[in-house]
Amino acid sequence: MNLLQSLKYTPVELSFGTSGLRGLVTDMTDLECYINAAGFLRFLAEAGEIKTGDEVYLAGDLRDSTPRILGAVAKAILDGGYGVEYCGLIPTPALAAYALKRQAAGIMVTGSHIPADRNGIKFYKTDGEILKNDEGAIKQAVAAVRAQQNSAGFSESGFDADGALVQSPALGNVAVAATSEYVERYVSIFEGVLAGKKVVLYQHSAVGRDLLLTLFEALGAEVVPVGRSEVFVPIDSENVKPSDAEYFRKLAKENPGAFAIISTDGDSDRPFVIDETGEFHRGDVLGAVVANWLQVDFAAYPVSTSDAVDSYLTEKSMGWSHTKIGSPYVIAAMAEKETEGTKRVVGWEVNGGFLTGSDMEIRGKVLTALPTRDAAFPIMVALVAALEAGVPVSELFGRLPQRFSQAGLIDNFPVAVSKEIMVKFGEDTPEVRKELEEFFSAELKFGSVTEINALDGVRVYFDNGDVAHLRPSGNAPQLRIYSVADSQARADEIVELSLAEPDGIFRRMERS
């Protein structure tokens, strides 16, 4: 019997989301992870990016499932004839920077911010993060590996009937240079700049929790670590819950005199900048603050970004463009501008992950480009910008145009229904506008629909200044809502009205 015939379960194939593979841990068997990693390496080899004997850099986050998946990925690397350089449990941007500097391939095992019952795998080519136009060829390579693996004899396959490796390889000693080089990347520019400032570090289960402590102490800050957790905390900078906001305010009260409260998501590529009052500042406006401090020439960011950012960058005479949601689209937009000869090119996502598309001189030093989401850099720049301006962090953000944003998501929302909604409401016609107004009604204090933007999801503009942006998850039964309004209360209300159970806007759309 071959391997596929011997399995006691029906394999579930992993799929790409906005950035990388994601799936339930139960579906991410050793076999499935092995096949996808081997397929990615086959794609690189066929493209001439790697050859037998090359090192592949590997790292992971702090989820319970990560060590097992790391073993499966390492097995795929070794079986392909490549070497494994294990960088440990470190932030995704630290692995990316380390591999990019060496023009080597990298694989990060992380589910980012999603719950612990899920995980993911993120791939890096020798020149950086994979892009959307790479996914087709990767899928073909994965399919070829899958067919080859499934037809192999069961006893020779190296997997048992549950899809688990019979023997997982040892990962070897950790290459500590990946961490030290990442820290030095920023210490070389900002060393001592936060001297005398108290910074509260919410550590939870972020993989960069100890690295950030080391980094900000090197910047001169008095760092107060809080909230360390050995249980994975799925905190999401795009879905800050009322309980999160309450905790941030509590930390501010418990730490009088703190300059800021900082944190990241699980793989430390999404930043949390929380001011001295306990107010969290979303990633889209954080990106604008960072871009202004850097005096960039061009910025790319997703269409789900608050329109306050557009106004602010225009006022500051900085070029900008909207992209679809996801770092691959931001990277593609940055690369296009660089090809045109534009200098000081950056990008960011609404989650706050900041990308540098070009080398930039900062404080007399050169910061090399890192075109993947980074959390440490925007946190540092925001604090430095406030310090240099001689204002509290709250006032720094208060200088931006006062539009307010919120975001949230609803779980257990059928993927097929989300797709129907995108098709049905994705065309800007009078008929579609009228039908949308039946859900986003005057009774709920919405104005008339003035525009529908279908660049990525369905973004609806109303004549009272409200914005509601509907977008399905790339690979999960979830539907997101991004709101923009003239007050935080209204932005929050739009999200609440959309997500309410059982009769909120999204559930009524589902039933219709």
Write structural notes for this entry.
The chain is α+β, with helices and mostly antiparallel strands. It has 3 domains: 3-177, Alpha-D-Glucose-1,6-Bisphosphate, subunit A, domain 3 (Alpha-D-Glucose-1,6-Bisphosphate, Chain A, domain 3); 195-398, Alpha-D-Glucose-1,6-Bisphosphate, Chain A, domain 3, CATH 3.40.120.10; 404-511, Alpha-D-phosphohexomutase, C-terminal domain (TATA-Binding Protein), CATH 3.30.310.50. The strands form 5 sheets. Strands 1, 2, 3, 4, 5, 6 and 7 form a 7-stranded mixed beta sheet that branches. Strand 13, helix 11 and strand 14 form a beta-alpha-beta unit. Helix 7 (177-190) packs parallel to helix 8 (209-218) and helix 10 (283-294) packs parallel to helix 11 (307-315). The protein is globular and about 65 Å long. The relative contact order is 0.10. The mean pLDDT is 96.
Mean pLDDT, as a whole number? 96
In terms of DSSP E residues, the strand content is 15-25%
Please give the radius of gyration in angstroms. Answer: 23 Å
By secondary-structure content and strand pairing, the structural class works out as alpha+beta
CATH superfamily of the largest domain: Alpha-D-Glucose-1,6-Bisphosphate, subunit A, domain 3
CATH class membership of the largest domain: Alpha Beta
